[in-house]
Amino acid sequence: MTDRRNRINEDLMEMLQMLKYSIRGGRSLDFSAGTSRPDIIAHLEHTDTILDSIPDDIDAYVQSLLSQCNVE
Fold first, then answer.
1. Considering only Cβ atoms within 10 Å of each terminal Cβ, which end of the chain, N or C, has fewer?
2. Three-class SS of residue 24?
3. d(C-alpha 30, C-alpha 7), whole Å
4. pLDDT tens per residue, range 19-35
5. Cα gap 33→4, rounded to integer Å
């Protein structure tokens, strides 16, 4: 890190270094990955499965989670 970059958060600096390493290694960024029609349908189907698993009584579900964690 140079003096010019000394204000960058260490997490951001690590991400930038990983990105730079990937690009130098011949990999490119693909901003359209996961946006094909089959990918979107698969994501929506997965989301629908998650919504089906939501319990009817949310308060009882939260209380059961809290009791498992011993948090009151």
1. C
2. helix
3. 29
4. 888 888 888 777 787 78
5. 34
